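Figure 3 (text version): structure tokens given as input.
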């Protein structure tokens, strides 16, 4: 039972407060009573009644004035009574509550944080640099104020932890386009980062509105090597695509020549044509035609 009480989380609820404009009228009336009392002293009237009016009016004015507080848009105030949470007031404008109540103001505006560049090993063990931008706000003021020592610092630390977790969960890149990668799937990575971070900061009453990666690169010590690797993989991929296309074009040419009876090709002539077409299609330089005036068999 004691353990359950220790783990119990706070929950925001509405505080019993009132508009301060009505109480402002009370303060003005109390001040008017004090002024009236002083005028009675000056006119030599009953000093007892004047003294009572001055004392009562002054006490009421001071008592009511202490209970005023002001809330701006997207600002809230947690109300405490001798350390006990009594609710949260989110109504903007001039507000009033009992003078012995403590008011702890907290912003519920949108916050924007860009994390520092972190060095993380991706899924394949390659060191990378990664940073993110997070848009967040306080959703539960009671949890933010009373369940964490410093909710802003808590959010900052959890952002770093979540970015490290996501950065290590996926590879930086994949030229086969068969895996979810940090560079190739930014929307998926951002959504998963938001879910991961929301799970971590829920205990502080914080809501994550958006997460986006702002920096993603290989670490400097392997950047040149990985660049050469990317170039090599790109060349191999381009060559494979080029050869596959060339084979298809040669097959199509031979098929159409046979179907339309343009020329009869035996195996040797067919092999020579395939060789010539593959050279023309796969060469990186312009090819120069050579006219054979004789026979292929001479």
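Below: residues designed for each position.
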């Amino acid at each position: 039972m004691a353990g359950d009480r220790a783990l119990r989380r706070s929950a925001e609820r509405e505080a019993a407060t009132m508009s301060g404009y009505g109480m402002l009228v009370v303060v003005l009336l109390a001040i008017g009573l004090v002024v009236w009392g002083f005028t009675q002293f000056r006119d030599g009237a009953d000093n007892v009644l004047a003294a009572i009016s001055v004392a009562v009016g002054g006490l009421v004015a001071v008592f009511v004035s202490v209970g005023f507080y002001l809330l701006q848009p997207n600002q809230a105030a947690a109300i405490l009574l001798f350390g006990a949470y009594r609710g949260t007031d989110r109504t903007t404008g001039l507000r009033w509550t009992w003078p012995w109540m403590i008011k702890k103001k907290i912003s519920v505006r949108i916050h924007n944080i860009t994390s520092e560049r972190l060095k993380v090993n991706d899924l394949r063990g390659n060191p990378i640099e990664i940073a993110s931008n997070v848009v967040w706000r306080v959703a539960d003021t009671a949890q933010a104020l009373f369940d964490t020592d410093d909710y802003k610092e808590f959010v900052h630390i959890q952002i770093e932890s979540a970015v490290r977790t996501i950065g290590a969960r996926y590879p930086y890149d994949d030229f086969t386009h068969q895996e979810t990668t940090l560079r190739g799937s930014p929307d998926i990575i951002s959504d998963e980062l938001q879910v991961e971070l929301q799970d971590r900061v829920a205990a502080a009453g914080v809501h994550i509105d958006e997460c986006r990666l702002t920096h993603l690169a290989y670490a400097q010590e392997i950047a040149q090597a990985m660049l050469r690797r990317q170039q090599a993989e790109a060349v191999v991929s381009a060559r494979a695509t080029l050869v596959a296309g060339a084979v298809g074009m040669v097959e199509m040419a031979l098929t159409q020549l046979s179907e339309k009876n343009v020329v009869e090709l035996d195996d040797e002539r067919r092999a020579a044509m395939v060789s010539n077409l593959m050279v023309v299609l796969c060469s990186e330089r312009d090819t120069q035609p050579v006219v054979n005036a004789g026979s292929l068999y001479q």
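The helical segments are 2-7, 20-43, 47-66, 141-146, 151-169, 186-201, 220-259, 267-282.
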